[in-house]
Each structure stands twice: as C-alpha cells, then as structure tokens.
C-alpha cells in the first residue's frame, strides 16, 4: 500500500506543530496510559480500558512490522518540541474485519486527553491524508465515527471526507455495539480540495 519511502523507521512527517514518526518501544508507556483512558478508549472500537502494558507493547511491534512491509502506515504524534514523547496515534490500514461499505484502507486515530481542543488531530489527519494520496498514490480512503463523537466528525469533514452510510461496530471499551457513520474520501475529491486550497492561497 505504501512505498519504500515510508518503510524505514527514519521516515517522518512534519507539520507546523507536530512530528509524525514510527512508534517506538519507549512509546508503550504513554500509549497504555493515554489510550487506556476511558474517555479515549470509549471513542474507539478496539482499545480496551484499562489498556495493559503488554498490549501496548504488542501494538508497537505490529505497527512497526506493518509499516516495514508497506501494508499500512501507523505513526505516533509528537509535539515538535518533544519528538520523543508520543501524545497520540494515527494510522492508515486495511480493515477487512469491519462491516464498512467499502474495502478502502481505513484512517483511524486517537489523541491523549491532555491535548484535546488544540486542533492537533486535525493537523495530523490532514498530513496523513496528504501522504496517502501524494506518496502512496491512493485511490480511496475510508473512516468512521461514532454518532456521539462530534469532534472526530469535524476532523473528517475538515479533511474533505463525505458521509458514506451508517452502520455499527463493537466497542471493546464500552462492551457494546455502537452506532457509527462511515465516511469516504476519493482521489478526485482530494485533488479538488487540494486545488481549491492552492487557489485560495495564491
């Protein structure tokens, strides 16, 4: 899915306030603590609360293996001033186990609660969308958001995603099936949005 450029752990994406880099073993503590926060985990499908340390360590190993194989791109979010300290995770991966109405790769993310309200995840999501379409030549990208998570919906809409149906998925942290909206961004929509942004800044 992703090219050789992204398959080395020196690869990173820099934005105005963030470094997006490969997850490292030393990130496991922060991942367990931040992602295992009930306020964060309940907004995801697969993260339990609490999140055991060994599961965070296993996640890092799987993410690095997937990145190296080009099967996806999972990145740790770090403030530029503290590139060694992860505050969230964002990734694009295949999601064959989901009931989403598309087989497109899936954009997923979470951000530690201390960083909420700063617009950091929107900044990271825009950078990952750009990487998918510009570096990887992607054709279509999917995502989903629980109905009770308007902040995540705003992030997707800001990146150009459009609604693509309604469904549900099981949330491990909630222990129940949760209604969710699916979203999609295709290459034509990305190019159109990119062109309008460039025109607006000329």
SSE topology:
Blueprint: E1 12-14, E2 18-21, H1 28-35, H2 38-41, H3 53-69, E3 73-79, E4 86-93, E5 106-111, H4 120-135, E6 140-146, H5 150-158, E7 162-171, E8 176-186, H6 187-200
Antiparallel strand pairs: 1-2, 2-3, 3-4, 4-5, 6-8, 7-8
Helix pairs in contact: 1-3
Written description of the protein model:
The strands form two sheets. The protein has a five-stranded antiparallel beta sheet, with helices on both faces. The protein has a three-stranded antiparallel beta sheet with strand order 6-8-7. With 202 residues, the protein is α+β, with helices and mostly antiparallel strands. It has one domain: Gcn5-related N-acetyltransferase (GNAT) (Aminopeptidase, 3-Layer(aba) Sandwich). It has six helices and eight strands. Helix 1 crosses helix 3.
- The CATH H-level homologous superfamily: Gcn5-related N-acetyltransferase (GNAT)
As residue ranges, the low-confidence spans are 97-101
Q: Give the SSE order as H and E letters.
A: EEHHHEEEHEHEEH
Helix proportion: 25-40%
The counted number of beta strands is 8
Mean pLDDT reading: 94
* Top CATH class: Alpha Beta
Label the structural class: alpha+beta
So how many helices? 6
CATH-derived architecture: 3-Layer(aba) Sandwich
Shape by Cα distribution: globular
In which order are the strands of the major sheet placed? 1-2-3-4-5
Radius of gyration: 16 Å
Give the number of domains: 1
Strand content: 25-35%
Distance between the termini: 33 Å
Instruction: Characterize the biggest β-sheet.
Output: 5 strands, antiparallel
Any idea of the CATH topology? Aminopeptidase
Keywords: Acyltransferase, Transferase
Domain N-acetyltransferase: 17-162
Pfam families: Acetyltransf_3
Family: Belongs to the acetyltransferase family. RimJ subfamily.
